[in-house]
Amino acid sequence: MLQALSLADTGARTTEDVFTAPSQWMPQGRVFGGQVMAQSVLAASRTVEGERAIHSMHGYFLRPGDVAEPITFSVDRIHDGRSFSTRRTQAFQKGVPILSMIASFQDDDPGLDHQATMPEGIPQPEDLPSAAEVLAPIDHPVARFWAQERPFDLRHAPDPIYFRSAEERTAHQAVWFRALDALPDDPELHRAALAYASDYSILEPILRRHGKSWITPGLKMASLDHAMWWHRHARVDDWLCYVQESPNAIGGRGLSLGRIFTRDGMLVASVAQEGMVRVPLDD
């Protein structure tokens, strides 16, 4: 996990700050979107002075990334105001952008405080099988990677749709997750890691609603854009509950919304992602 979120300052200075980072190996050869988002968040954070923390980001996935190539991040310091700072980060490989993101940072200011309530009846993570337990019997390189190499433990409620469709066609699910390894006490790192994990399962409610699984023949999926709002600080090496739903799918695209809660019901973040979802229409 820490290797995937490592950045090196190149020392280059024009009107932008430039960083480089490695690509984490993935079995399909494409960079995981959550990785490049998290690295973009960290790169932008490195250019913000003082204690201002990221509270929102909006990013577009422009091209698939190549895991065999490092990634260069250029950060444009768009604005620094009295309470807010705005940064634009572009992630490049081979001279072309693969992700473009704008993020906003804010001082820790007092203000009104309310939040949505965590849904009731979600099983606790200890009562659910881990992804490693679900995928261990499957002799396939992608299954082995998901089971053994991902830096997060994911536990679905109801059952995951890795290899079979859901019994009930509902457009919602909950996923408990936490980092497998303890992370340093660095709030910036935890916020970036939260962005990383937010990309794992957010489009699954679209498949669940239509009785599809990840191995549906002819399925093609790709993240198009991702928006995220950080509300309250939480550690990603503690259990977090990601409540997800899909309000719409049309035109080969699907929209999913998510809310991330701590175990005791504190709302940590909200997420929205639209993805390309193409599947043969047989019903």
TrEMBL record:
Domain Acyl-CoA thioesterase-like N-terminal HotDog: 22-106
GO molecular function: fatty acyl-CoA hydrolase activity
Domain Acyl-CoA thioesterase 2 C-terminal: start-end pairs: 169-276
Pfam family, one: Acyl_CoA_thio
Key words of the record: Hydrolase, Lipid metabolism
InterPro entries: Acyl-CoA_hotdog, Acyl_CoA_thio, HotDog_dom_sf, TesB_ACOT8-like_N, TesB_C
Catalytic activity, as annotated: a fatty acyl-CoA + H2O = a fatty acid + CoA + H(+)
GO biological process: acyl-CoA metabolic process; fatty acid catabolic process
Domain of life: Bacteria
Subunit structure: Homotetramer.
Recorded family membership: Belongs to the C/M/P thioester hydrolase family.
Protein name, as recorded: Acyl-CoA thioesterase 2
Natural source organism: Microcella daejeonensis
